[in-house]
Design goal:
Chain lengths: 137, 671
């Protein structure tokens, strides 16, 4: 933020009363806090990634259960990314971040599902002549 | 050494591009010479090129957009005259390969380098002022965005003189755009110009989402923001959502072309139809990226010149967000005919028509804003009324095209061409001219000439209809788009009518130029000393015209909708201003050359990638990276404007306001 005065305009309590501000603004947390936070997140995500390799490479986990273990690690990884890098929390001051995430998911969902639907119907209708002939009995 | 670049790239044998480029180069050299002789370089560098002031950047966007608008309009005049001349036995004056470059360049330039910069220019100039803050969230990034856009525009114009431009239309559909069918550099010029400017646009989107969400003056809650800020937010959200799709799709096409991959080829497992799908997933939202801020401009104009708050403000906000979401659910209407079948076509036909509902809500809101108000027929108001009439008809032809069986008949015909010009000219271009007249006094401190402004409006309005009604007609007769030669003699008269319309439009453009020249010469008489020339309602009118670089001496404290109107009423009632604040020093971001340097190296890189000069491309990238690292290590980001300077500027403003107060008070007493 280039303009500290925007936020320093009123006492912090006044800021908190506004429905729309997110972690980075709160004057109570300084830059050091966020560096620390990101480093901790980085460590966690490296651990989880290494863990995934370890699970596959060793026989710590019972063979058939490996996919499940990977799934668990992947979900944990998503959680770490959301909390430490995208700063998603359940706090009341977090609406912006949660909305941004929801918006991103919505857009991705619309484009991906829409494209699959469209291309699937296209491929079905626009089958090359040869293939169409082969399908005939 | 120089890749594919040889002397044969210069079109010595083609008089039109050659002469145009020579004239252009001479003009550029002339301007550079003038700047040197007058010793303006230092000033230009300090005050404009390296400026991170959102108002300056907005004005530079506007300048870029206007120059490119003229270039795109010249292309349009050539196309319309070629079609009018090349009927039946006549061949016209443009060869097919040249004509194809012109229509491709026209669409590309108008959308990416005229409409987008102008819209973004207004977002830049107006939004921070209306939000009551001193700059955008990331001022330096803003400068980088601008210069990257300019870099893309430069590359497109270089193609006129060195090499060629794409012949594929403004959206380079494969397989035509693959190297098998377009072996030249035309498509590569397109790809790299759009790629570079597209990154700039994406960063603008991020910047303005952040600005609107995070930088508002105290008390400016979401539902107190002026309508234009809402549309800036919606448009920026769409940019953030869909510009990555554009970049990815064009990157895949580049990979096909450079490395012979097969994303979109028709053989080896590629699928050209995937390109249509992806490009329109960006392309349809793109038209709303353009038109939403235009709606914002009209909202400001209707409310100001009707002397009333915007009717149904909350429904307007809802309609804007509704359009923002549904705009991402309609893209298939651009390829109903590709064969997805009835189920898919029906769904997208319905979603497309549903968008018109959101737009309809807005139209009624604007009409009811005028209802019962004291309407002043100023130039911006004329453009806005012309817009309502024009846009409603454009929307209706759109809804017609949204019915798949009807679209099968007129898809890619002149009817389609007429439709989208109907909405883009009537919606976006009219808004840009309305906004120009409306905010010009704020930006430059004097008003534009009313008479010439009105002449420009009427010529543009009549010229538009005379040009495009024949094209609707021709489309229904079966004329397809992008014809270099017209075989059917019966179509000749309609094409002549259309050309006559273009002549009226040329007169309209001339009226705009005259308006600017006359106003600049009379600027001392036309000064706006008050800062509030239109009796405005939002915070930009609380600043002097032009505003100081820090915008507000003290950030306003907003107490309701229509922030400035409330302040003004209070002052009028008590016949004095709010007490003088205790002035404090203000922190402002320092200038930065990183935008200019990045864009310079981006241009070098783009040019070498187009011509396959790999070593130079590497050097260009390295240069951009070095500039970035250099910038990242900068440790002074802000400078202080001393309290005395702030106080001096603000006391002058207060004196002007007090005078205005007396004037308005006397007016009220007299009436
Ligand atoms: C009422 C809302 C609108 C509806 C229902 C609508 C519908 C359509 C449809 C169905 C097409 C495809 C026709 C075809 O290819 O056969 C189309 C094309 C187009 N529309 Fe619209 N439209 C609307 C508003 C707009 C607006 C506001 C803009 C721009 C600001 C716009 C710009 C375009 C462009 C540029 C194309 C054609 C691009 C090309 O093929 O090169 N439309 N519209
Ligand atoms: Cu569309």
């Amino acid at each position: 933020m280039s303009d500290p005065e925007t936020f320093a305009a009123g006492p912090a309590s006044e800021l908190d009363g506004r429905e729309d501000h997110a972690p980075g603004d709160a004057p109570s947390e300084d830059a050091g806090y966020w560096v620390h936070n990101a480093n901790f997140g980085l460590a966690l995500s490296v651990l989880l990634t290494a863990g995934a390799f370890a699970v596959v490479r060793s026989d710590l986990v019972w063979g058939p259960a490996i996919p499940v273990a990977l799934l668990v690690l992947a979900i944990a990884q998503m959680g770490v990314q959301l909390v430490f890098f995208l700063h998603i929390t359940t706090g009341p001051d977090n609406t912006n971040n949660v909305l941004a995430l929801a918006f991103g998911l919505l857009v991705t969902f619309l484009i991906v599902v829409g494209s699959i639907w469209i291309m699937d119907h296209l491929n079905h209708n626009m089958m090359p002549m040869q293939q169409l002939m082969q399908m005939q009995p | 050494m120089f890749g594919k670049l040889t002397w044969s790239a210069i079109p010595f044998d083609q008089p039109i591009p050659l002469i145009t480029s020579i004239v252009l180069i001479l003009v550029i050299l002339g301007v550079l010479a003038l700047v040197t002789v007058r010793g303006w370089w230092g000033m230009l560098w300090r005050e404009w090129i390296t400026s991170v002031d959102h108002k300056r950047i907005g004005i530079m966007y506007g300048l870029l957009g206007v120059v490119m608008l003229v270039r795109g309009f010249a292309d349009a005049v050539m196309m319309r005259s070629q079609q009018a001349f090349a009927v039946g036995a006549h061949r016209g004056y443009l060869a097919p390969e040249h004509y194809d470059q012109i229509f491709s360049a026209h669409g590309t330039i108008m959308i990416f380098f005229a409409a987008m910069p102008l819209v973004i220019g207004f977002m830049n100039f107006v939004t921070p002022l209306q939000l009551g803050v001193r700059d955008v969230a990331f001022p330096t990034l803003n400068s980088v965005s601008f210069w990257l856009t300019a870099s893309g525009a430069l590359l497109v114009n270089i193609s006129l003189f060195v090499g060629e431009f794409a012949r594929t239309g403004w959206l380079p559909y494969p397989p035509l755009s693959e190297s098998a069918y377009s072996p030249g550099v035309g498509v590569d010029y397109y790809l790299w110009a759009i790629q570079i400017s597209g990154i700039g646009t994406l960063m603008t989107g991020i910047n303005f989402v952040t600005t609107v969400l995070k930088l508002r003056c105290p008390g400016m809650s979401y539902l107190r923001m002026p309508m234009f800020c809402w549309t800036t937010l919606a448009s920026s959200l769409l940019i953030v959502a869909v510009f990555p799709i554009l970049s990815a799709t064009l990157a895949m096409l580049s990979l096909d072309r450079v490395f012979g991959w097969h994303y979109f080829t028709s053989d080896a497992g590629g699928n050209p139809m995937m390109f249509m799908n992806l490009i329109w997933a960006w392309g349809h939202p793109e038209v709303y990226i353009l038109v939403l801020p235009a709606f914002g401009i009209f909202s400001e104009v209707f409310s100001t010149f009707s002397g009333k708050p915007l009717f149904g403000y909350r429904s307007m906000v809802a309609a804007t967000l509704f359009i923002c979401i549904v705009a991402m659910m309609t893209w298939l209407h651009h390829f109903f005919t590709m064969g997805s079948g009835p189920a898919v076509n029906t769904a997208f036909g319905i979603s497309t028509s549903v968008i018109a509902v959101g737009t309809g809500v807005k139209i009624y809101n604007w009409i009811f804003t005028m209802y019962g108000g004291r309407v002043r027929m100023t130039v911006p108001m004329l453009w806005s009324l012309g817009f309502i009439f024009t846009f409603v008809i454009g929307g209706m032809t759109g809804v017609l095209l949204a019915v798949p069986p009807a679209d099968f008949l007129v898809h890619n015909s002149m009817f389609l061409v007429a439709h989208f010009h109907n909405v883009i000219v009537g919606g976006v271009v009219f808004a840009l001219f309305a906004g120009l007249d409306y905010w010009f006094p704020k930006a430059f401190g004097f008003r534009l000439h009313e008479g010439w402004g009105k002449a420009a409006f009427w010529l543009a309005f009549i010229g538009f209809w005379v040009t495009f009604v024949p094209l609707y007609w021709l489309g229904m007769l079966g004329m397809t788009r992008r014809l270099q030669h017209v075989w059917i003699p019966e179509w000749g008269p309609l094409l002549d009518w259309s050309l006559a319309g273009v002549a009226i439009l040329v007169a309209g453009a001339a009226a705009q130029v005259i308006m600017l020249v006359v106003s600049i010469r009379q600027r001392d008489r036309r000064r706006d000393t008050t800062g509030d020339p239109w009796d405005g309602r939002s915070l930009e009118w609380a600043t002097p015209s032009p505003p100081p670089f820090f915008n507000f001496a003290q950030l306003p404290d907003v107490e309701g909708e229509e922030a400035y109107w409330t302040i003004k009423l209070r002052a009028l009632e008590s016949q004095r201003l709010d007490p003088e604040p205790h002035y404090q020093a203000v922190e402002m971001p320092v200038n930065s050359a990183v935008g200019f340097f990045t864009a310079f190296f981006a241009t070098v890189t783009g040019f070498s990638l187009i011509w396959h000069i790999w070593w130079l491309a590497g050097l260009g990238l390295l240069g951009a990276f070095v500039g970035f690292v250099f910038f990242a290590w900068r440790d002074v980001h802000e400078f202080h404007v001393p309290a005395e300077e702030v106080a001096r500027a603000d006391r002058a403003r207060r004196a002007a306001r007090t005078a205005l107060l007396g004037e308005r008070g006397a007016e009220a007493a007299a009436s």
